[in-house]
Every structure is written in C-alpha cells, then in structure tokens.
Amino acid sequence: MYDVYGLGNALVDEEYAIDDGFLRSHKIAKGHMTLVDEPTMDVLISSLDDLSPTRMSGGSAANTLIAIQGFGANTFYSCKVASDETGQHFLNDLSRSGVKTNENAAATEGKSGRCLVLITPDAERSMNTFLGISSHLSQIELDETALAASKYFYVEGYMSSAAGSRDAAISAREMAEAAGVKTAISLSDPSMVDFFREPLEQILGNGVDHLFCNEEEALTWARTDRLDIATTELKDVARNLSITLGAKGSLAVSQHSQSLVEGFSAEAVDTTGAGDIYAGGCLYGWTQGMSPEQSAALGNFAAARLVGAYGARLRSIEDYQETLVSFRNRVH
C-alpha cells in the first residue's frame, strides 16, 4: 500500500546564485519556468563556468514525493531518465530517500533532463528547463498495480508540456478514478497555464479531488486580478483547492468552506521548491488523517523552513523528520 503515487518530469536541478543583470543579458523571464532546448541550455551553463552550482535530483513532483516520504509516508514515483550519469544520479537520489520507482525508468538512449535554477538576491527563482528524455515519458512508464494500491495520485502540471507525458497523465488519472484512488494536480507555473491550458484541462478531465496552485497561477487561470473570482472558477475543476499566498500562508478551500491558514515567519533566500514541499505537507497530512487546515499548516511550516536556505529540497530525510517533529511541538 502506497500513500501517494506520483508522476512527473525527472530532472536534476543545478542552482546558481546570480544577479538580475544575468537574467536581463540572457532575456530570461524572472520568476517563471522556461522550456529550453539543449543548445540553449549549453550556452547558459557555459556562461556560468566561474560559479559553483548546488546539484540535486528534482522536478516538481519528485520534490513533493521526497517530502512525503521524508515525513514518514510511503510513495511511488513513475518517471523516465536516460542511462547517463545525470539519470543515475536522479535514480540513486530517489532510492536513498526511500521513494520506489518504476523498473523501466532508465531508457537506453537520449539525455536526462536538467533544470537550471537561477537565484537572485531577492530570493526569486527563475528556471530554464531542458526536459531531455523525460519529455518522452509515456503510458509505458506507468505501474497500474502500484497506482491502484495508493491512497492518492499526484501529478505535476508540467506534464502538460509534451504530448506523451500529457497522455500518460490522463491515463494515470483515469486509472486512479477507476480504482477509487483520490486525484491531485498542481498547476506548477503560470507559463503552464498560459501556454498549455488545453492539455491541462485534458489532464483535469471532469475534475480532480485536489488542486494546488499559487496566487499568480490562480489569477492567470481565471484571467482576473481578483482571487475570489479565481477561486470560484477553480472550484469548477477541483473539489478542493490549496492556494499558496507566500508569506501570508495559504487558503484551504472546499466546495462549501474556505480557511486562511496563516504562514510562519522566515528569512527567505531561495523560494525554489516552496510549492513542492507545501504540497508534500498537505498530501502527507491528508493521508494521515489530518484536517485540511492542519495539513495546510504543515505545508506552510515546511515551506518556511525550506526557503531559509538554498535548494529545492531539505538536505536529508532526517531534516524532513525533524521538521515534522518541530511542527507538532509548535502547534501543540
């Protein structure tokens, strides 16, 4: 029995601390994720030769699954990497974290995906992503037995950017519904809503149990500057909403109620992965019987911990366990 079955792009994150001038000179959209081809990624990496990156396996859903596993639940992650050093690093990292993966995750050709994360002094992250072989993830990588044995199915909205991964996400959501597994999706980034709305709608189908997004993604989805209007529109595609509001906390929304769950103070140096660990806190809480408000509070607390240091994840499984203990001590 798994608590959460995840599906997402397998990427190795390489984080660099830079200034805004670098973003301007390379025409990089600040605070957003941009898909790039391999030559563009090579040019950007060569421009950063004199800096040392922080490197760890990532991808939005992978970060979330590692958080859930770290808090103490059981997880399974379907993905696709190449048989190269980058792909092996990714799989080894997941294995050390305790996350199970599909046996056919490593392909025999291609290059594994990478995400260049650029952190400016205001703690904002701007991402340039080369999906590599991950863009060819398909229904072949799905493990229907593991999915049917899970409490939740979770998929990142980034899967909408390629036809194969979109179809895999749709199939997985349909399998989950047929098996009585609850469904959850993250909108992931405003660029996904802007440029891949139709594939996102196909992944959502007739509606999911839970939808994660931040305020900007919600407003972009509804094409409005009013969060109340955006919330009403999103309730048409999800029975429950988790909307992050930065330092203010998050909204836990059902069809008949809405709660503002306050955030925790933090000195932010890097917001990369904050939404991912928030989703991890919520999903862990739901699978363990916490209320929506308690689960959102755990997500808020974990995100506040994460943004105080560089990196899209906490450094070790023990750090997640300590975070959960600290949260419980804080709220009791």
Report on the structure:
The longest helix has 17 residues. The protein has one domain: UDP-N-acetylmuramoyl-L-alanine:D-glutamate ligase (3-Layer(aba) Sandwich). Helices cover 41% and strands 24% of the residues. Helix 3 crosses helix 13, helix 6 runs parallel beside helix 8 and helix 12 packs across helix 13. The chain contains 13 helices and 16 strands. The protein is of the alpha/beta class and 332 residues long. The model has no long low-confidence stretch (mean pLDDT 95).
Domain count: the total is: 1
- What Rg, in angstroms, do the CA atoms define? 18 Å
Task: Kindly report the spatial arrangement of strands forming the biggest sheet.
Answer: 7-5-1-11-12-13-14-15-16
- The ordered H/E elements are EEHEHEHEEHEEEEHEHEHHEHHEEEHHH
Which spans of ≥5 residues are poorly predicted at pLDDT below 50? none
Compact overview of the structure:
The protein is of the alpha/beta class and 332 residues long. The chain has helices spanning 20-25, 38-46, 60-71, 85-97, 144-148, 163-179, 190-195, 197-204, 215-222, 227-234, 274-287, 292-306, 317-331; strands at 2-7, 11-17, 33-35, 54-58, 75-78, 81-82, 100-101, 106-107, 113-119, 125-130, 150-156, 182-186, 208-214, 238-244, 249-253, 258-262.
